[in-house]
Amino acid sequence: MSKPRVAIFDFACCEGCQLQIVNLEEEILDLIHVVDVVEWREAMSEQSHDYDIAIVEGSITRHEDELRLEVIRSRCKILIALGACATIGGVNKMKNNFDLNDVKECVYGKDAKMPHLNTDMTKAVDEVVPVDAYIHGCPIDRKEFGTVIRALLLGKRPPVPDYPVCVECKAKENVCRYEYNEICLGPIIRAGCGARCPSSNFRCFGCRGYVDHPNVEAAKEVMDKYGLTVEDLKQKMILFGSKQGHTL
Ligand code: SF4
Ligand code: SF4
Ligand code: SF4
Questions:
Q1: Counting ligands in written order, which one lies closest to the CA of residue 236?
Q2: Do the Cβ atoms of 103 and 38 come closer than 8 Å?
Q3: In the beta sheet, which residues pair with residue 231?
Q4: Where in the sequence of the chain do the CATH 3.40.50.700 domains occur?
Q5: What separation in Å is there between the alpha carbon of 116 and the centre of ligand 2?
Q6: How far does the centroid of ligand 1 lie from the alpha carbon of residue 176, in Å?
Q7: 63-82 pLDDT per residue, tens
Q8: 241: Cβ below 6 Å to ligand 1?
Q9: Which residues pair with 80 in a beta bridge?
């Protein structure tokens, strides 16, 4: 039986999630035994139009990128969104809060009007084409990458948690960041990172995006307890924005 052919593509991003794949070390050798990687700009020079699984990193910020993504979607059976830029638009979505001409001028100064520096509102991958699986985080968790790929190869639905980071955080017996007068997004953000930030004495800043049905009432109770409001919580979600339709 031939191995599934995998291609990895990047759009607007820092490529840090691809770097996490490169850093898989021994596990990458296991994965390479069960798939054929046919295109991966960061790690090889070969290219192919013939693949079963497309892994897409980065957010979509230009019309021409939408067209490129649509072609990738038409060529693959399974499309995986890799990392926060792809799954929720990531930090790139911050620019949607401003006039795009102002954003360009701020970044490129007097060159902002050059035609190749065109830019549109940032979109997550699933705002352009259907996505079959998500690997959340900024950057992604290496172990979760392996878990999702293995599940898909077995024809199973990848196990992505739909409960908040607080569940993992409490299991680790961390002292809650609210006790340090910080606003932590853990009550409304999707778990799966092992509460990476609170376990390192940082608040959760939302990189895995909202759980599918954020429990706003429970979040409000936490806010009330510490003399804060849900509005204060939403302010802290600015870094990772939110997908359309996934607002509190
Ligand atoms: S999700 Fe974060 S680490 Fe991954 S490509 Fe985007 S900015 Fe980089
Ligand atoms: S609010 Fe943050 S620090 Fe507190 S339990 Fe939840 S994830 Fe942990
Ligand atoms: S704790 Fe929050 S910000 Fe940190 S990795 Fe997990 S989801 Fe991302």
A1: 3
A2: no
A3: none
A4: 5-153
A5: 43
A6: 26
A7: 999 999 999 999 999 999 99
A8: no
A9: 55, 133
